[in-house]
Amino acid sequence: MMKSLALIPQPVSAHARGAASTPLASWGKDIKRILCVRTDNLGDVLMTTPALHALRNPDRHLTLLTSSAGAAVAPFLADIDDVIRYDAPWVRARPPRSHAADLAIRALIEERQFDAAVIFTVYSQNPMSAATLCYLAGIHRRLARCRENPYALLNDWVRETEPEHGTQHEVQRQLTLVGAIGASTSDTRMRMQLRDIDRATLAATLARRSIDPALPYVVMHPGASAESRRYPAERFGEAAARLVHATGMNVLVTGGASEAPLARALIEMAGPSVRPFIYDLSNAFELGAFAALIERATVLISNNSGPVHIASALGAPVVDLYALTNPQHGPWQTPHRVLFNDVECRWCYRSVCPQEHHACLRGIPAAEVANAALDLIEATSRPARRAQPDTRRNATYTE
Q: Which CATH architecture has domain 9-179?
């Protein structure tokens, strides 16, 4: 049966949140230069922004060590002072290269003379490789979650208890990690700070496509990096047709260059009667303008991928088509509907459906997608709310 949930992970016990192997001392005023290690994708970095904000104070300098994909969002993070791009050997998507690059990164980190490092991971990742890098670079304080005793590799160790004792949303997971050394914040929003040039570039790009930026629009993003997280493009097209008929709004279809075939399949399935309202914007934007597009969308409809996390960081309404591969990465503190079809093989953590049926996504009717979007549009009255962005952003929404 198809379900709609506000947030998939449920509240967990203090034990499930992870307890330090021994009580940790708070990091004091002597900890001024912190290396924040998050070698995953753009969405993972965005979900870490509340924890980065908690670490931040006027006397601290935060450097983000992240992948090429994660580094793309660094210019939009006000709490980050510097970024080191590093496609680490323990990350699956790393391109082929020699170990000389890894030795050079170690030397660079040592040269920066960091006082401490925080290693942010999902629970299926082992922090030991990153901890070893930081240890060899001479960073005195090193914080991470770890399942086994790390001995000298971590001197600030939070015991890993997920998923055996429950799971947290990725945002909360990282907040509780830095909370172990006394870093906290009452403002737990995800963050992405757009620039005037991003909004101006968006307006110019839409104008070139003869799209009136003043008119409300729906954004559809049919792509995702993993095949197991892609709702069928044809179903997106059917939902698009229903939305155009119900609202008269334009539907803007986004994606990278490799996702252009998905956009074409979506538009083809939508049919000729609504085609004048549907625009193929695949490979049309750099990150800043793409985020600006999401920022002012009436609603985003997307697979659970980077655009969902951008929407969360900008307070944009989102219908999240949630493949049941991982329970921790849903929308955070933004108006949303999460759609999935429950299956026994949930939480498979696979990039390709191991059962080859994709039932957790294919079991969602296109009509349900359209209805969820219409319900969310009505609930948020999105066009009227654009005049009050601060009110919209600071609110916490639930279903």
A: 3-Layer(aba) Sandwich (3.40)
